[in-house]
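Q: Could you predict the 3D structure of Branched-chain amino acid ABC transporter permease?
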Amino acid sequence: MNKPATAEQPSRFPLRELSLCLALAAAILAVYAIMGGAYSTRMLVEAACYAILALGLTIQWGYAGQFNAGVMGFVALGGVCAMTFSVPVNEAFWASELPFELGRVLLYALAAIVLVWGATRLDRLGVPKSLRTLIAVVLALLLYLVVISLLRGVTDEIESRVGFIGGLGLPTGVGWVVGGALAGGVGYFIGHICLGLRSDYLAIATLGIAEIIKAFLKNSDWLTRGTATVSPLPWPTPGPGELGFVMARSIYLVVTALIIAVIFFLLHRAYNAAWGRTIRAIRDNEISSAAMGKDVNRRRLQIFVLGCILMGIGGAALTSFNSIFDPQGYLPLNHTFLVLVMVILGGPGNNLGTIIGAVLVYLIWIMSEPLALYLMQLASSLGEGLGWVDPADMQSRALQARVLVIGLLITLVLRFAPKGLLPEKVKHHG
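A: Sure. Here are the predicted structure tokens for Branched-chain amino acid ABC transporter permease:
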């Protein structure tokens, strides 16, 4: 019996990838030469954190076609865990009876969840489904009002007596791991509800949930100090006070680069394994995949949760590096739209392209302001002889130039490279 012929695309020299890496390295060296080591190293650390976020989005969108417009929410969840686990313990809180009171209310909340969940299973006892739904909804509303009233009483006491509950004083890395786990857990809950929606409805749902998370963190003064912020946050590495800005930031950069390397290795192996082929098959033709016996919903939920975990880790790393937790600092422009641009520029589904796109876009985002300010000052000096008057808000205008530059960049990419600088590599067999 003759074996079926299999034709694979011959391997090629990665000239495009090498050229992009060299061009990006040249741009980074130019920034170092112009802005100095401390500023440039800080920029690279933040770009590395954004690369982790972009990898989380590219596996959701590039691997599985899931458009997550709520990246900001998962970044905030990672940030609050980094803060909660690393900030020193608030002795005044733990020395009072408030931990017991808060724990009691949380147990009531858990019992309420169990009761509502049990009400949703009443149809198994012969209760009509319409009546079951009505009972579950009414019970959920009543228990919510009871629990929220009890919680408000305890949290008011916490805010008035001790400020906020404080942290746990644990190593920063613990907060990063828990941040990824919490983001994954929330993603699991969201996925069960939203992954059955169409892609545009999924985007709207995740966007709304991200705003809910931000509003909760912003208004929970007992947990996060709200708009008062929490700072300074400790680093997982020696800080600038011990080693100086350049050396401390360089070590932090090494840590984030190692995280990216591990994620890249694992994703590369998974992408080329049977799991990755199944995910891409579901993305390309969900009906055919289901007909072949693939559990479509379970696979889509897996990839969504995995992407959320990476976003939580990236958000925790970014918050720790900035050394401040500010719920108002999480913005859709900075923590959702910018990550989306990184994935579009690099190439959805291409891990290397996503990393290159993240660093390149963040470099452009950061350098747009000083470059625009320099051009404005140059135009102002040239126009002095013509009687030009400098605008009073030149600095803020230069800051807004980054939005114009990013908008122009994404327009050019969508026009001339709609699949990104490094499109997803698809091997053809047959």
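Q: Anything worth pointing out?
A: The two ends are 17 Å apart (CA to CA).
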